[in-house]
Amino acid sequence: MAPVSKNRLRPLTWVLLLLLFVGGFVWMQRPSRETSAPPNLASRAQSQAPATPQPAEQVDSEPLPGPDRLKDPASPKSEAPSVNVPPDPALLARFKAFHARLQAGMSRQDTLAALRDLKQQVHDLPPEVAAATVIAALQLGDDAATGLAFIVGDEGVLDESPTLRTALLDLLGQTEPEAAIAYSQTVLNDATTPDEYALALRNLGWLNHEGELSAELTRHFGAMLDNTEWRTRPTDGYLEAFDIAVAVGGKEMITDLVSVLRLSNGESTAQSAVNRAAFIALDRIMLREPDTLAAIYMQDPSFMDFAPNHRASLLSRLDPASAPQADALRNYLRAVPADSPELTYFARIYPNGNFFEGNRLVSGWETPGIVQIQQRDARALEFINQLLADPTYANVAPSLQKISKRLTSFAD
Predict the structure, then answer these.
(1) What is the pLDDT of residues 362-409, one digit of tens each?
(2) Which of 357, 353, 387 shows the shortest CA–CA distance to 372?
(3) Cα 47–53–54 angle (5° rounding)?
(4) With CB atoms 3.0 to 4.6 Å apart as the test, which of 4, 130, 303, 391 could cross-link to 125 if both were Cys?
(5) Which CA distances in Å does 101 have to 16, 96, 143?
(6) Where are the domains of the chain?
(7) Burial 202-225 (b: 16+ CB within 10 A, else e)
(8) Which pTM does this prediction carry?
């Protein structure tokens, strides 16, 4: 092979030097290419640094998982989710399958078992995903009778649901609070069926913290009472919804209940059921807010111008340890006819020791303990003996003596 001349080496050297220079320049530019990565990745890196957190839209432009987009329940001022959480497709399919099975016919045992299974699956999901799935099932508009009753269990959760939609609304109240409130409000505005309406009221009642939903609940409860069709054909759910008045309380709810008791004498079976529900609710409010009811009665005794025994029963709850309640008792005993069956009934039960117990949609029980009952009896006995010594009450003395004798026997 002939030797390579120096003239031929010189161009080759320049080519090699040029290639090395270009390669080095490219390598030196590599860090600047990494810093120009897509915005979402760069923002995520910044969010991991110990700097001041940026607003959500600057932290990450990619959708986050459902739980991370939930409103923090411990921070009431945090904003609602900006992206809707999709329903769980598997659970939604199970709801559809359950509807088909109900239409085809299911035994009571199978229906209860299926509802228990669906309830467990709802509880196994994150609350916001469960809420989205239940709402999606409700928005399908499908419904079917379950063959079950409307039975309230512990803490207001239904033990039995008469329809698929009532079962869904019952489950919705056990999921994400904001979603439960929002959808329940649409049910209340549409006023579809009394049972669905009752559960929508319950869902709001469960979340009526510090009375922030009391005005809305009072308004919707009044609308329920004004629905003549529901009132004349009350369902079990409609009657259970009277518990909302107890949970909210206040003068307006008391007025609504009294208006129901004044509607008629309760001759029809339906009206008797509605009157009983209204009376039980009013009686329980009396146990919770006796001073409120005493003040209303003192201002206008005709306010309780309904069934005499109902009036006697309510006023027999008054405790003379409270000055307003003692005044209401004195006024009542001065006004009630001495020979009336109403006074006879009052003397037989005062101080009223009968209580309506049972599971309620929202409120808890009011039944006092044995010690509280004994203390109340002692106060009542002292009060009655004071009235017996006052000539003003001479005309009702025979009834007062019966009360004193009965309470004295309790003390002995």
Answers:
(1) 999 888 899 999 999 999 999 999 999 999 999 999 999 999 999 999
(2) 353
(3) 85
(4) 130
(5) 80, 9, 12
(6) 84-230
(7) bbbbbebeeeebbebbbebbeebb
(8) 0.78
